[in-house]
Amino acid sequence: MLLRELNHGKCKTYLVACEVTSHAALIDPLRGGIERYLAVAAYLGLHIDYLIDTHTHADHRTAIFDLRELIGARTVMHRAAPAPHVDVHVTDGAVLEIGELRLRVLATPGHTADSISLLVDGHLFTGDTLLIGGTGRADLGGDPGEEYDSITQKLFALPDATIVLPAHDYRGNSHSTIGGEKRSNPRLAGKSREAYVRIMSHLGLPLPDRIQEVMQPNQSALDDDSIAFPAVAQLTEVRQLEAGALAALLDSATPPLLLDVREAEEYAGELGHIAGSRLLPLKTLAQRADELADWRHAPVIAICRAGVRSTTAAAILTSLGFEQVANLKGGMLAWNDHGLPVER
């Protein structure tokens, strides 16, 4: 196995390649590093098959969608990832073949709902779930209890010699081991689940410096200058509606407008859409909001894949004077998981 870290900074991007076949994958590429990544791959004579994000990043723009357009490689994220244009949605236990290498997916939610770790040849790419001497924050749509379970039940179940390669490091470290993190990670060593949740709930960390420019563009795969994204505070104010509650509303005498803000190919894709829903992609929502004028004072439910882009849509509509906008929590993933009817 050929393994290189390509950024030499706080944010880590890993190139993993099969030395027999020269097939490769990029893990957590940064948008600002595209030229470097392509140059290294060309120099080494590698063919990049997969572009993998271990989670939806909140502190830098992802490069997987730009690279997908440039070189035709397949994008990979967890099933719960909110972004469109993901070619391969993986779940726990999935295996990606890179030449003769087998990259095993471990679902490790907690830092984010879509967090994964990747295991190949004794090396574990942990994203922002397990860091060297730390763990990823869980206050940006994550869950500290889930993170503790992911680390202690899945990652710490691996052999102690397993090499840990995180997506970030702020102390100049390059790697650690599972055994080392078990023994000395201050957030985990000797800590119960309850203690860990308490620690993570009181970190008091500021928001990432560029979160307004980064998180929602990564969630939507839209350039940050093509849409005026709402502030994080506006997102937290959006009312969230469970799938079962929406199903009951649709049977009422005055059902709401169902506004699906995904891309057209998603609307007709594997998850389908709710009967009677109206397709209005997020990227054109603000410009076309006047088309919804009749619903300005009536209930509107925004819908997307995972309930993330639609939260952005709901906040945008609210800022434009729509008075009764809510979001389908969990999006079409939750709707399908509840066994509710869809059209395709």
Structure in words:
The chain has 12 helices and 19 strands. The chain is an alpha/beta fold and 344 residues long. The chain has 2 domains: 2-201, 4-Layer Sandwich (Metallo-beta-lactamase, Chain A); 227-337, Rhodanese-like domain (Oxidized Rhodanese, domain 1, 3-Layer(aba) Sandwich). It has a 6-stranded mixed sheet, with helices on one face. Strands 7-8-9-10-13-14 form a 6-stranded mixed sheet. Helix 3 (144-154) crosses helix 5. The longest helix is centred in the first third of the chain and has 11 residues, at 34-44. The mean pLDDT is 96.
Keywords:
28% helix; Oxidized Rhodanese, domain 1; 6-stranded mixed β-sheet; 344 residues; single chain; 12 helices; alpha/beta; 2 domains; Metallo-beta-lactamase, Chain A
